[in-house]
Amino acid sequence: MVMQKPSPDQRLAVGAAVHAAEAGTSGEIVTIIADRSDAYHDVALHWALLVALSVPILFAAAPDLPVAIIGRLYGGWGSAEVRDLMLLTFAATTAAFLIVRYGLAYMPLRLRLTPEATRRRRVRRRALDLFKVGTEARTAGRTGILIYLSLGERMAEIIADEAIHAKVADTEWGDAMAAMIAEVREGRIADGMIAAVGRVGALLAQHLPRADDDVNELPDRLIEL
């Protein structure tokens, strides 16, 4: 299923959910949706190299195969020489590399061939980068929290600033993450983000209730990358 970004009305609904969630807490919720967290060029290169290197290994393991190929190319009128075998190996290796490398330009296939652990690390790294730029230390009381959703990987991260992290254990965000991912898997991106915002807001209201002098320091709107 191709993940479609929220419509304008859905983006407004997410912003309204953030505004409502912040009504009971001094926490500042930032929501970000990205197409993906990395281009994974290295993954495509690694697969291309792996397939390319398998060609000479295959020819070495089955030496009759390249000889038979050359025989067919000559139409049975010539025999395979060392030069012919080397040229065939080089051509087949190069062709295998290019076919895989450019075949993996198709991003859904590249993502599918990327190990889950690699995707998870890249999503986490991207979320941390965005958190440091747009959320960390951007509020007077260090009360910012980022809800980040990466559509290509269908993975999410919740990262909180110091004041929240000191009062709420990372494991407590599990319900919010589960609620979001459940909706996202059904293609309901905005509903997933709204569900996460609601659960995060409830936890923040419990651990970090709204102060009388609290002001809105970070944007409520959904940010799309």
Features:
225 residues; alpha/beta; Diaminopimelate Epimerase, Chain A, domain 1; 2 domains
Write up what this structure looks like.
With 225 residues, the chain is α/β, with parallel strands linked by helices. It has two domains: 8-38 and 116-224, Diaminopimelate Epimerase, Chain A, domain 1 (Roll), CATH 3.10.310.50; 41-112, no CATH class. The protein contains nine helices and four strands. Strands 3-2-1-4 form a four-stranded mixed sheet, with helices on both faces. The protein is elongated. The mean pLDDT is 86.
Strand content range: 5-15%
Number of domains: 2
What is the CATH third-level topology name of the largest domain?
Diaminopimelate Epimerase, Chain A, domain 1
For the termini, the CA-CA separation is 20 Å
Number of strands: 4
What structural category do the secondary elements indicate?
alpha/beta
Note the quaternary state here.
single chain
How many DSSP H or I helices?
Answer: 9
CATH architecture of the largest domain: Roll
Which stretches are low in confidence, meaning pLDDT under 50 for 5 or more residues running? Answer: none
In CATH's first tier, which class of the largest domain applies? Alpha Beta
Q: List the helices and strands in order.
A: HEHHHHHEEHHHE
Could you give a short description of this structure?
This protein is an alpha/beta fold. The protein is 57% helix and 10% strand.
